[in-house]
Model the fold of this input.
Amino acid sequence: MAYTYDDQNIFAKILRGEIPNTTVLETDHSLAFRDIQAQAPEHVLVIPKGPYVTYDHFANTASDAEIVDYTRAIGKICDMLGVSADDGAGYRMISNAGEHGVQEVPHLHVHILAGRNIGRMIARAAD
Ligand code: 5GP
Done:
């Protein structure tokens, strides 16, 4: 499968500093910032700095260094937000991909949602 990365997507513009963001954490290969339309008291997006469209694109083609950095960044964000289910109230992590995943921005991101009960994993689609 050949992925096509659109470097005009909004997160690419954020990474280039063309659009402001509320940064929570920046590492060598990753950036975490607050979602502009928060759907929970805590709603943070974590993105790799590299041009990856979806999680599978990243998982299949990113370097080990990028994957380790990104995974550790997600762990650090959970610590910083105090939402780890170990000593906090927990969170929901979501990564939407493609048409059926209803992905709006074609640059890999995970949503970390916390601060309230997020409800069931998915709504049952109407028949
Ligand atoms: P998706 O549906 O692709 O998983 O989610 C994209 C997310 O990006 C949405 O939750 C939306 O609110 C967020 N978003 C879209 N544009 C911007 C922006 O310019 N800044 C920030 N911080 N978030 C954005």
Summary: The beta strands are 23-26, 30-34, 42-48, 91-94, 110-114. Helices lie at 10-15, 55-61, 64-81. The chain has a mean pLDDT of 95.
